[in-house]
Amino acid sequence: MIEIRGVSKVYDGSRPALDGLTLDVRAGEALAVLGPSGSGKSTLLNLVAGLDKPSAGSVTVDGVRVDELAEAALARYRRARIGMVFQFFNLLDDLTVLDNVLLPAQLARTARGEARSRAAELLERLGIAGHARAFPGRLSGGERQRVAVARALMNRPPLLLADEPTGALDTASAADVQELLTGLNADGQTMLLVTHDTALATACATRTIELVDGRIAGSTTPRGLDPGGGGAPAGTGLQAPEGSRPELGGVPSRDGHPGSQGFRHGSGTGGRAGR
Ligand SMILES: Nc1ncnc2c1ncn2[C@@H]1O[C@H](COP(=O)(O)OP(=O)(O)OP(=O)(O)O)[C@@H](O)[C@H]1O
Ligand SMILES: [Mg+2]
């Protein structure tokens, strides 16, 4: 899914933020990137998101050479192939929860009815349907982050990126978001998450790497993927039985990833809509 080859990033001639990094992330993995402040974690995420260009090396995501894309193609790439979640949510405070979640579909010119049924399904699955007409300012941090995750997943991106998704949350909300992300990965969502939260990394990641001075200094596999690859890791307890996948309106994805997010959160996060 992600192939990073010999990537360096140098900002204004100083010590490189990334130093010859080579890294693969397979479909179905949840890779957590740990490491001290300034070690290059956000830089790595930004290169994968196409928000910045490497000084050397190549970044390929889902078959696309992200580092070679021009602006218009980059915008399309970000719309269709990745979803991003940030530490401070980055929601638009003068839009309702529902309109925040609908925004990526509007940018992708998804038909209105199709977008609305997708949004409704996501809000329901993430336990925030009761807040659809509220403004983000009225929600708790954990609820806001759920809205941000719903927005990130709106266009069914093959890859979810998160930079410190629990960094601004209290312990209970962080546990909530941790459970949500773990469940999404159990349902097959590939993700790359940068975090200082070792509880999150241990619970959610199939693999962790530690960056130090822009290089990989170590790695662990808290929840290894089965060798077949691509499938959901075992043992999360969040997968509903086969055949129970709720239908997301049968909306085909425009980029060849039909319904890749199963959202089978029967036991994980589904029962919270009324909170
Ligand atoms: N836009 C920029 N211009 C100049 N230097 C930058 C820029 N962005 C990052 N850097 C530098 O690159 C290095 C890596 O930064 P990065 O933000 O990737 O670290 P990080 O691991 O995400 O740290 P943190 O845990 O504090 O978020 C740092 O030395 C930082 O100062
Ligand atoms: Mg950072």
From TrEMBL:
Superkingdom: Bacteria
Compositionally biased tracts (Gly residues): 265-275
Chain residue ranges for the region called Disordered: 218-275
Organism: Actinomadura fibrosa
Residues in ABC transporter domain copies: 2-238
GO MF annotation: an example: ATP binding
UniProt name for this protein: ABC transporter ATP-binding protein
Family annotation (InterPro entries): AAA+_ATPase, ABC_transporter-like_ATP-bd, ABC_transporter-like_CS, ABC_transpr_LolD-like, MacB-like_ATP-bd, P-loop_NTPase
Keyword vocabulary terms for this entry: ATP-binding, Nucleotide-binding, Transport
